[in-house]
Design a protein that fits this description.
With about 130 residues, the chain is mainly alpha-helical. Helices cover about 80% and strands about 0% of the residues. The mean pLDDT is about 85.
Amino acid sequence: MSDERRDLELEKPESELLLWAGFLLPPLAWSISLETLYLFSDYGCTYESFLPNHIVSVAFLVLSLIGLAVAWSNWQKSGATWPDDSSGSIPRSRFMSALGLLTGALFSILIFAQWLPTLLGVPCGK
């Protein structure tokens, strides 16, 4: 795909929305996951049923991985090279996509790490 055609494609509002989704979905999934796990942890420790914690962890891990996949797709559309110092929609898209890839990986690992105590069976400190 030529740079002019790619530039026009990346200027569309749908493309910009996907850039923001790839960048913001993983941290948003992590923050909602963290609060929801805090909410369900007291229930789990009281009734010794951590099924809600597992469901929340899996759901938000999948959501974070979807954000990572959107960032990967955006990066592929923008040329799959690291951002440079030039200006325009292509370098901006590369920058936001690269940032989305890094934050997506970080927050997916973080969601999994927060799920580990529940997986190992020690979320109540027993």
